[in-house]
Every structure is written in structure tokens, then in C-alpha cells.
Amino acid sequence: MQYRKLKFSLSCLGFLSLCQVGYSADLSIGDAKSVEGELKLSGFLRAKYEDKSWSKNDQKLTFDVAKINIDYQSSLMFGRIEYRCYQYDKLCDFSALVDGYLGYKINETNKVTVGLQNMPFGPGRFWESNNYGGIVTQVGLEDVHNVGINYRTNLFSNTDVDLGFFPIDGGDYHGKSVDSARYSSNFVKPDPSSEIQTYLKEENMWVARVNHKLKFDDPDLSASLGGSYWFSDIKNKTNNETGRHKAWALFSQLGYQNFQVTLTGGHHKIDNKDPLNPNVSVAGSFDYYNYLANEGNFYTADISYTFKDVGKIGKITPYAMYSAYDKTGSYKTSTRNIIGVSVDHKNLGFTTEYIMGKNDLLIGGNEYSLVQGNDNKTQHLLKMTVAYSF
Question: Is 0.85 topped by the overall pTM?
């Protein structure tokens, strides 16, 4: 797969400064505590600069992404629509709906959410502190948004339990690929250029998660332990057979004052009912398809420390992450490690991240990286972003 080079698009800093003038006010109407509720508009505009070890053509400032959120909150209901627009060759040549759900508050400890939403697998939507994300995102187990219903309850005041059923994936939106113009990594219909033409669809996804918060006498200390399980049908549209996808994850979070550590590990296995390619499936996201090893262990370790109210700057957070997909068999392990820092000043956010990837499809890799790997060499990416939030 050829990854398209991002081209210079607009004077990003000037665009951000215009937005700062026009959208500094609170864009909301209503009262969130009332029955009628509050409707709020928010989002961000982000530009980026990248320096890649495998390319000499990306050392320039470009537009990255625009995000629009419409949130609804009342005493009984809640909901959200999130849409993102990215730029590869031109503005919004890839865009996708991320969330589109409505929820009902049964009482203070029970709620139901219906629609396109983040699936309750792992410690949360994001398993790390950085902006780029870990390798497990491309495996399709982290930050996954599919269509279904989720029930959440709180037991004994310190244990959250989620039980969700998601009959279909999040769908394909605007882009150039056949079926990969989607925010979350899903199994997709292969592009004509794909060597594997088996078409898989994941359906009837059952996901459960339990997260138990430990209690301490020290108010500065917090910790939690949890686990989640994923079971679904893999519909092979090529031969009309049905396989299974099974995954589990264990996770823990530890915090002391401004210090945070999150550890996640697990295993997944896909039975795709493909006699020609029993160990490989075709997945896709962000308008690109890739091949995925059907079984492996995954790990993410993240550490961060937040300095609050640093002079006139605001909040500064350095962080580091290790993530890996250790595939079953002779396939090479895929890893992505990140060290970085974020700075938040009023409505502006700045990040600088140094990313090291090995057999990583996004860091100097290709569509084979999450199966047999590529050259097994570590590639490097320096990425800096500036964003205006409203």
C-alpha cells in the first residue's frame, strides 16, 4: 500500500488565529440540569509538522484535522455527535462520523446508550496519554466505535460494569478507498489492489467490562483493576461461512497526585473461515486497507506526569508509551514507542512527540507490517501539532 504524502494546504496559524477571535465564547444553549437540557457545540482545528526517517518530503506545516462535537445533556438524557475531517491531498478528502448516540439515565448509577459509540473494551477509549496512539489501535481493539447498545451500572460505589451488544460496525464514510474510509479499524471489503480478496464483516459483537476502583486513606492515591471480554461473529462474505472473534484484556491504572500509570495486556484470535488465508484478514481505517495477523498478544504501558499552572503557560504533561502486537507463529512483533510532551494554554494546545515504530504500518511500514512485518528496522517520526479548541 502506498501512503499518500500530505501536501501543504493553508496558512494554518493564520486560520487558527481567526478561529480564536470568532469562537472564544461558550457555544451552548439551555441548562444541562433541566429536563429540556443543554446543547453545546465544541471541537478543534489542528495543524501538524512531521519529520520522517523514511521520507524527505514531509518537513512542512500542513493542516491535519478538524473535529466537530455536538453534545446534549439533560437531567434525563444525553447524546453526542462527533465528526472528523482529515486532509491527505486536499481538505476533507477523508472524513468520518466517530460518534452518534443517545442515552437515557435510568438513575444515578444506571444508564443506557444507543447508537454509534466507543465499545467498552480495555481501560477506556484511549489507553495512553499521547496524541498519536498505540499500535493496538490499528489492530482494531482500542478506540473502536461501532453501532449498538451499551448498559452501564455502578456497583458498591466503586465498581463500574459495562455490557454491550453491537450488531454492526461503524460503517464506511467519505474517502477514496473501497471500504476503509472509517475512523475505527474494522474488517473491510478489500480494494482491487489487495492480494487477499476475502471479504469479512464483523457482526453481533458482545463486549463486557468490569473496572474496580480500590479505596485508600490517602486522597492523593488512586488505583483500579479491571478486565474486558469481546466475542463476535466473523461473516465471511466470500464463502458465506461464519467464524468467531474472541479477545480479552486485563488492565490497571495507578495515580498519585499528578502522576499516572496505565498498563494493559491481552490476547485476541480471529477465525475467518478462509481456507486460503486462515492466518490473515483484511482490515482498514483512515482510508487505507492493511493485512492483520489473526492471533496475537497485545500490550500497552503508559506513564505521564502533569505540571499544573506553570507560570503563565498553563498545563505541561510529559509522557511515554510502549505498545506491541506480538503475533502468534513466526510473524515479527510490531511495536510503537512514544515519548512526548503536551502544553495547554487557554484554548491552544501544543504537542511534540518522538515516535519509534518497528513493523508498524504507520511508521515507515506497509500493508504487511501487522502480519509478517517489513524490514524489522526501527523507523522514526518527529511530530509536532498545534490545535485550537472551541
Answer: yes
